[in-house]
Amino acid sequence: MLRQALLTRAASNLTSRLLLPSSRLFSTTRTPHATFIVIARDGTDPSALQRRLTTRPDHLANVQKLKAAGHFILGGAITGHASNAHEQHREEDKMIGSVMIVEMENREAVEEYVRNDPYVKEGVWVEYEILPFKQAIIPS
């Protein structure tokens, strides 16, 4: 009976930990965090793409720090799309913004992070919104 209770408890703990980002999988202390989605739009002026490409290494280094701290869940570029399957563009030509999903203490922490991101400081992202996000758990 005791063995069964211990196994059930261990399975429950493992399941709840698997839902956390891997960087916090082995954490012994956990500060409560909320999940947010950041939707950012690039400028549309003629030099917008060049600004993005020039700033991209600094932006990605900043995201790497966020990931190392266990706050980054996923992110990537929002892309335009070709009007038909025969049009081909370089990937960089299609970037029009970005989306990030992050876990932080509160919206203010996300706002501070975004405000200090190189893409904002260098004028790549000309507007952004931060929204609370709740992941759906779909039963198998």
TrEMBL record:
Cross-referenced InterPro entries: Dimeric_a/b-barrel, Sec-metab_biosynth-assoc, YCII
Domain YCII-related, residue spans: 45-134
Origin: domain of life: Eukaryota
SUPFAM superfamilies for the chain: Dimeric alpha+beta barrel
A Pfam match: YCII
Stated name of the protein: YCII-related domain-containing protein
